[in-house]
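ok here's the first one, seq then struct tokens
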Amino acid sequence: MTDRAKIANVRSIVQQKLSKGERRAAKQRQEMVPVSRKHSNGPHQLRVAPDSVSLADRHTAELANMEEARLFTDRELELLGVVHPRLKNRAMVDAMRQLRTKLYTLNPTENFSVMVCSVVPEGGGSFVATNLAATIAFDKAKTSLLVDANLNGTLMPRLLKLIGRENALGVTDYLESPSVGVENIVSPSGIPRMRCVPLGHQPENSAEHFTSARYRQMMIDIKTRYDNRYVVVDGPALSSSTDARILSDLCDYTVLVVPYGKVTPGTLDSLVDEIDERKLAGIVINDQPS
């Protein structure tokens, strides 16, 4: 994807906490961690945390992963195709801010999770997901977390390799090992206030992973740990993977990316019908000519 890539025509389709005190109290109960949350303001269900991961171990791992290995320069971000506040391509920045604002409008009082995926392979889903997370992090009062759930994604692995985090633990490591906590898989991204969770070292059987109770718990934990954290999931292409439908169900919202001129209206309609209309937040047309 080049700097000339254009994102436009963001269309809102549907108008759709833990409080700090509750979360602080939950953390003080060292033997308990949250596993689910009701849509209402009702109580959270809790379960005993694995004995193999002590509170001290979790705290140490979290502090280590919060440290920035290094930050990318503006020029490096531009070469990678990632937006930043000083980018000269204002059309790109404005388009991503418009998408961010549309999502904020759907849920103005709480953070959210959103799955971003292209409707066809190589349609720009990872590009949009990464730039949405980067744009959320423009705001110094907010943080973003980009979760890699795309076997064919290449942008996050490039980011992590450039900052020396290519061997970082990720989603599948967490799902395969009870001794790995969420704090072990959240890594710096090289972008201020943006964190990422790589796919991990065991990506096989991803559909089985994504349907597991532990993956659901992970999504709840990474969203509720900080009330200013917005979770963006980079999902696989909708037309070629059942994982995209599974991930959409697990997120609050879904954004579909359509490469300009590569999808017929009939195909798009049939793919859109596969997503719960209550979750479908918008459609992004990618690479539209000026």
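and now the second one, same deal
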Amino acid sequence: MSLAHRIIPCLDTDGERVVKGVQFVNLRDAGDPAALAARYNIEGADELVVLDIAASRDHRPTFLETIRRVAAELAIPLTAGGGVATVDEGRAILRAGADKLTVNTAAIRHPELLTALAAEFGSQAVVLAIDAKRVGDHWEAFVRGGSVPTGLDAVAWAHKGVECGAGEILVTSMDRDGMRSGFDCALTAAISRVVNVPVIASGGADTPETFLEVFREGRADAALAASIFHDRIQGLGELKRYLGEHSISVRQSG
């Protein structure tokens, strides 16, 4: 029996407040993270992701108090991260209440960090976040909140990241982020083909049909979205009913 596909709201934060932009820029305030977490917990989210999207760019500590406030509202798994560069920083995030942690910029610089995190906390707690942008005939991985290109092929990096110890991949299409133009199914499928761990698709969520497409054509195990949930454009229960009616295995909301 295949595992249920997951629907995951994402709280991108500036450390204290939820923010949302388009293609990683023009950020606007989208609310209090703890209040939104409580709402999604009630509405039937399968998991929640909370990220400090400027931590690595601004060189500030991760947002432990925000994680604590969010975790206190949840009865579902929480993934958190932003600027994690050491095992001790990962430990602090998990101690603050997260079940899993994400790592992005530091893992590209030092892939052995993934190995160290997996050895300390288990691969299931280590999520490799990849911000990918189409460049010519491939996707390139970017770091520092999507502001710095790395020259790395995103698909090849996903494969290496799993070999190093990542137990899950969170791939965000920078081209689709905030555009409500549908997920980049080609990107998600390309990564899914080269890894043997769950892949979370992010960037471009819009109608229920776009979620159906990323599960079928994009081969995603989970789909993440922000503004369509924050702004109540799409309800979680309605979305899950639609997917269930189209033979996509999901955990139905209560």
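notes on #2: The chain has one domain: 6-245. The two ends are 22 Å apart (CA to CA).
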